[in-house]
Each structure stands twice: as structure tokens, then as C-alpha cells.
Amino acid sequence: MGAARKKGLERRDFLQHGLIGLAALLARPMVGCSSDSGDDADNGGTGGTPKLRSRFAEIGPLGDADENGVKLPAGFTSRVVARASQKPLETAAYNWHVFPDGGATFATDDGGWVYVSNSELPLGAGGVGALRFDKDGTLVGAYPILQGSSGNCAGGKTPYNTWLSCEEVDNGKVFECDPFGNEPAVERPALGIFKHEAACYDPSNHHLYLSEDQSDGRFYRFVPDALAPNGFADLSAGRLEVAQVGADESVVWLPVPDPQFSGTTPTRLQVAESTAFRGGEGLFHHDGVIYLSTKGDNRIWAYDIAAQTMRVLYDPTTSATPILSGVDNVTGSCCGDILVAEDGGDMQIVALLPDGTLKPVMQIPSHTGSEVTGPAFDPSGTRLYFSSQRGDGGGITYEVSGPFHGPA
Q: Which domains does the chain have, with CATH numbers?
């Protein structure tokens, strides 16, 4: 067990009820679209950030690869911000992690932001790294926020500015991390023991949704027993439920009897009536809808929280333009464009617009055998971060700047 993880577990008695100390420290305006969970670009005008509108419908076709090997539309540029096993910043002691995966951004009080990124290394060599940028986009810090975990794949951002990092291993856990590096990470066993992929917070009900990367994985919901002093879900205790999707698209949530997998039956197999999904991947919340990608059938699903219905939003077998494959990490624009990163496929990030249009927004054609991971916008919505997980053998993290959004 890594030193930082061990320290976090030793302090659990202090932090277990809703990360009281951490929540107080992070009482900043949330960065998110309208009232969303903060996974997407800011459209609420909070924290001095102007209200935004999407410009994805205006984006043109991809051009030739630039000097970084990235194909972009006209008006967009790329830069490399970190390479695996190298220092992103000479003045910082931290070497960027190998196999970068899921990520998110967090606004800072000085007008800058932090981009966090998981490491999918196994056997206790994983964790989470962070890059801090000032208000001008200059990299000013690099540091770890979780060490000693395994196979950290995707995750999710909470509206009170913490990062939920998910272990994609059979006995995987979720760790709640401080993106600013001031508090140790905290293990959240109440969120279940299984092969976690992603997590997504619903701010309207304070429920948490979780995906499972198994060929017969399930779609879960965590209902907290109480709210923490910060007004958000206390993740230390609650009820884990699993979805049963009917032929009429209705969803029923059934309690999981042994979410800690303390017996012999894996968590996903404990409720026979539950619905199997073919490899649960990314999750994203926008305007009362949870979006889920499943890699086994290359589908994008949409779960309507209020109606409790679930439908297929994209299916390559029925789409008129089936250009999206290897669906994996998911994020979104300020206004409902869903961005899907490809694991393999054409090594693209493809935007699924509200009218159903599919639009590639970047591509790394030379990185065969890799996957695109960790897409996340900065607070202005004009910088998109992502990684090629195995680019150059160990991973490269990029920033693409351009008119993804404009002032509302």
C-alpha cells in the first residue's frame, strides 16, 4: 500500500462523514453546466466565468495532423502538457504517471484550474496525478493526489470539488480525492466492491451513478443515508442499488444485498433480475439525464432521472453515420453535446450533438494500439484536455484550444 493511501486510511475516522474537513476546504463555486455535476464546461456564469454557448455545430472537418500528430478542425491548436515518466514541470518533483486515463478539471481561486488524471497501472502502482494551470493557461504545478491504488480507470467529479477515482479491478474500490492536493484521499467502500469504471453525481437528488467494466456489468445507483454538513451526499454510508431495465424502457432500482462482496457471489450477480450491460464505460450528467457508454456493443445510453426510463441514444447498427466505435470515456459541452472518446476505433473524440449529428473533433491517427482517455474542458470551455493512454509507450496528455464554446 502506497504512503499517501495509507495516510488516507489512517485519517478515515476524521474524514469519513462526508469529508468534513475536505468539504470545508473546497467550498468554492462549482464548475459545471447550469446545475450539472461539474463534468462539463461552465454555463452558469459562476466564479467569474462567463455564461457559455456551444459552438460544436459550427466546427468543420478535421485537417491534416499537426506537429503533435493531432488532426484538428480549422481554428484549433494542440500542445503536449505531460508525458509519462517525465516531469511536466522542471520545478516540480513529480513525474507524470504511466497509462493516463479518466480526468476532470477544477477551478482555482486565482482564476486558474487543475486537471486531474487517473493512472491505470495495476498491482498498487496506479493512482491519480494533477496538473495546475494559472489563469493564462501556464502550467505552474504537478503533483500526485492518490498513490498505491490499482487500475484507476475513469471516475467522476462531485459538485463540491472532489474527484472520485475508480479502480477497474475485480475487487475495485472508489477513492475520493482532493484535486488541490491539500488532503489525503479517502476510501469509499459504501460505493460497492466491483470492477468500477466511472461515477457520476446527480445534484438534484444527491444520488451517485456507477458503471461496471464487465461483459455482463451492471448499472448502479448509490443512495446516501444522509447529507453531509456541506449539503451534499455523505458517501460513507448508504444503499447500493442495481438497475433493472424493462422492455418498455422503464427502470426499477433493486437493492444489492452484499455490496461489499463479503460473500462468494460477485456484486453484479447478486440480483438475478438486474440488467446486464456489455461493458459499462463513461458516465456524464446533463440536464437531468445520465449518459452511459457501453463498449461491448458501442452504444450510448440515456437515463432520464425524473422519468426513470433508459433508451439507446446511439447504436452503430442503426445509425445513418456509424463513425463512432470503441466508445469509452464520456464528457460534454455546456449545452448537451456529448463527447465520446474512442478506445481504439479511429482514435478520435466524437461529439454527439443534441440533433443526433456525429462530429469528430480530434484524432490521433498514428497512435495505433492506444486509446483516447480523460476528456475534460477547462472552466472557459475553450481548452479540452485528454490523453493518448499508450502514446509513446506510456502515455501523452494534450491540451487542444479553440472555439468549442463562445459567450452566451
A: 3-407 (2.120.10.30)
